[in-house]
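Continuing the series of single-chain predictions for the mutant panel. This is the parent chain; the variants come on the following pages.
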Amino acid sequence: MPRKLRVEFPGAIYHVLNRGDRREAIFRDDQDRGRFLESLAEACSKTAWEVQAYCLMPNHFHLVIETPQPNLVAGMAWLMGTYTSRFNHRHRVCGHLFSGRYKSLLVSGQGGYLRTVGEYVHLNPARAGLLGPEHPLRSYAWSSFPEYLKSPPQRPAWLRVDRLLGEYGIPKDSTAGRREFERLVEVRRSAEAVEHYPRIRRGWCLGDEQFRQELLERVSARAGAQHYGPELAEAAQAKAERIVTEELASQGWEPNDLLSRRKGDPVKVAIANRLRRETTMTLAWIAERLRMGTRTHLAHLLYWDRRDGIEKKHNTID
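Parent structure:
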């Protein structure tokens, strides 16, 4: 059965989200929320995860997790399985609690992207209407935001605050620093009406182009026929572009030569054959990229090239 590819490596940071089955509640009361955080603490103890931020909503949760070891998949399997078992036992129900597999977004630890995803998580209660304008963010108890405002001994040991504070230019976890952190996030809240986070909601990674390219190389190395996801399409296209660049360089061609040379040029046909062998790109994509006309024309060229190759091989044997 096809499954989502999970990219894991030491030091990876993820925004993880999962919803209740049929969008039903996964927390019926504060005792459920407390049990989820207890389960999360156990998961961190087992995996060495460092939680950067979290928010528990009625029918879903958000986690921002750094994984010193490449173990997101194993840890999430334990966390969701354990909480589901405890929820079902307490409420005397059975069956699935969560709606399929969780969503995970890889986040760059540089360039302010952790701050962006941290704000997305901490502002979730206000964005969802669970807090009115008159209520400060610290009043939502089931988020890491009020924990950030406490002194270190009062916080969970598994919650790491220094990285996110550093993203706000706050060098020290002090009373003044925590007060400034609250002020800056509340200022950001006031701009929330015109701010959107499409890359967090629909993307698979959040970072600069170098970060994305590094991840695409990891995806290419790990992808199998059983995997799916938007990152696979990006990785396949990135690999195809590298092949085109290599082949043009080996022939001494410039990119514009693809436009000026004829559609059936033998060099183009050779590149197309390599793309068909080594990538999953479609005939339509290859025909457009190499300026070889329609996909039907390309298929025709490849057929005759293959046939000519077979005939030459037979003649050599004879």
